[in-house]
Amino acid sequence: MKPIKIGLLGLGTVGTGVVRIIENHQDDLQNQIGSPVIIEKILVSNVNKKRNIDINLDKLTEDAWEIIRNPEIDIIVEVMGGTTLAKEYLIEALNLGKNVVTANKDLLAMYGSELLQLAAKNSSDIYYEASVAGGIPIIRTLVEGFSSDRITKIMGIVNGTTNYILTKMSQEGASYDDVLKEAQKLGYAEADPTSDVEGLDAARKMAILARLGFHTPVALSDVTAEGISNVSKEDISYAKRLGYELKLLGIAECDENQIAVSVQPTMVKKSHPLASVNGVYNAVFVTGEAVGETMFYGAGAGELPTATSVVADIVAVSKNIKLGITGKRVNTTFKKTEQKTKEQISSKYFMLLHVADRAGVLARITQAFAQYEVSLESVVQQPNPDNMNAEIIVITHDASKLAIENIIEELNCLEVVKSVKSLYRVEG
Question: Does pTM top 0.85 for this prediction?
Fold first, then answer.
């Protein structure tokens, strides 16, 4: 049996996991594929570096081209991260007719359409299950499991770092700054956490999911992103009192070929399945016209969960190689869509106002909402001994994003309104 030979670009956390799984599961892989799977060569930055895995030094190289241009290698597996070099390497690999498996969400969010077109042109496969939600097989599910349905909404917790921070703030009443420091000590957050906490990482993943779910080109610039750095423990406390959990959600919606994709802190009703997803776990909630609501839950990062998705892609590509059908995956971006306008993006909203504590204030506030035809689901005044002003919480019925922006502008002009302290979308 001719083996499937792998060229591995990167031997960090995920790369190490890929090596472990391929070595430890060789019998299972052979039974599924019909051939052995061999890691022929591995790209590392320093061949002599000490590693927590035993590996033959002859398999290591510091020269990526030695791997990519090796005619014996069938599949290039890219787990090195970054975009500039990774893009250069994968373009060369695809042009040489090699198949590609990658876990690189940044690369796919920015250059996914270009790479997919290049793969099709050269009859090569490019698989990227591990680029979103670690060990959850959400990409394969969207491409294959929902192939007969029409997806209308994808909503998910796709960043474990921010979910860990918000969970700790909710369960322990801790401040954002304190939990962020703890997350950095535990290795859940980077020394520079900007990509995670400002929603950029989640935005990249949502661009990939929306592209697959709605069969339309979605660029990273099409995703509006807001992070959690301004979330206060008071916001979370108010949310809990009213029966909500605060989560950083990626939300992609498609209605009659009009789409909207965003990442934002969102009040999620405690009865909704996403509200109970805690810690570093991820979950993706998918709504289809036929199947209705479904949810996929699991570990969103880590050596073995992410490596499991990479190896699953290796198995799928290897089967295609054996069958001689690489590059036959159907083009998933065949629809033309338009971005929704602010007037077309609609949801419920939570608003916390600091106002003067005197008669007639509430009437002036509700008049601002009525002016833009936004009805209110509830209005609650919360006592706060630490605030000399009154605190009013408003939860609206469905309202357009444009109407809410106009209302905030109107409220900021009222001398009785000291500040619009918080504004969050409401789901569930």
Answer: yes
